[in-house]
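Shapes recur. Our protein:

. . .
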Amino acid sequence: MTMTGTTSWMNPYGPVDTTLNKWTRRVIETHFDPDTGTPFWLDWQEAQGIDVRARVTGFDDLTDIFEPFDEDVLRTLPVEQFVPRSLNGERRVYETGGTTGAPKRVLMRDYWRQQARWMARVLDHWEFPTGNVLGVAPPGGANNAGTFVQHLAHEWGSLPFHVTMDPRWAKRLSERPSREEFDEYVDHLLEQAERVLGSQSIDVMFTTARLLERPAVRDLVANSGIDGIIHGGTSLDRDTYRVFREKWYADQTLVGEYGNTLMGVAPEVPPTISAPEDRGYHLDYVPCYPQFVPEIVDDDGGLVDYGERGTVRLTVLNKEFFLPLFEERDVATRIRGTDPFPWDWVRTPATGEDAEQNAVEGVY
């Protein structure tokens, strides 16, 4: 069964206004077209001796055809092999942070602009302040985070500002016996943020939960005109989240987002849709269905029951990029969604035990 038990849902806020089954068919047609499809998937199909377009009628068929995706392919394969030949225009290479091994690379054109538009529409439910955005320590360069900040500001007709972090360098510093150099690097990032805030009008800050825990960041926000904060990049426990909302950032509209370079963005569910008292300071995230479908699965690959925790298995269904059944390093709780987002939500994702030793939970 699919993540919702049905495939009839449509996302009125997303870039795709169709059902999951129909959208799955469109994506499969794009990537497995013999003339204009994706080289990697066409080679894979030939090696398997099957006709994927003939066998896929909907989302549920993917688990019958594909094995869990091997992420190392994205570390070694030339990126041109993983996009359909029909994808023209100004394409861009994106990389994952590279904190758990060599970075994975993908090639996309419009996807992150679409994700920013999705985020902006969900933020409308929060009555979130709009205006100039300062990204404090999202990775720049080939990483998607800096690009996302730029597109989000443009959705509001505003300006993006950036303080860029190198997550690979942060990982190296965090592994050293002394924390002194790591803390100096964080101070370096915050000094740059202070300079921006000292000369520019900034309404929204995009940063990480770990940075929001630091007293220097609390002071930075308190002494600025920042009215809204979007945080992501790391897991956040309920007790810290409660302190964020009730004490440290009570004067700002605080919204979380769960996502990464391969997945896209899942904003925190607005309180107007799911009342805070019902959530008990859990962080619930709503994925941009059907562009990507995170399923919460057990050790055998089956969906866990609602309210149960399991591994996040991700399927990206995009005409620019197709990634089936990719098992993330995260664990999360499966939550039944409600209107206007009736598909499954993801609650309180956190790094799984098997990945904790290789993950960076500091700045990032």
Q: What stands out?
A: The radius of gyration is 20 Å. The first strand starts at residue 92 and ends at 95. Confidence is low (pLDDT under 50) at residues 1-6, 354-362.
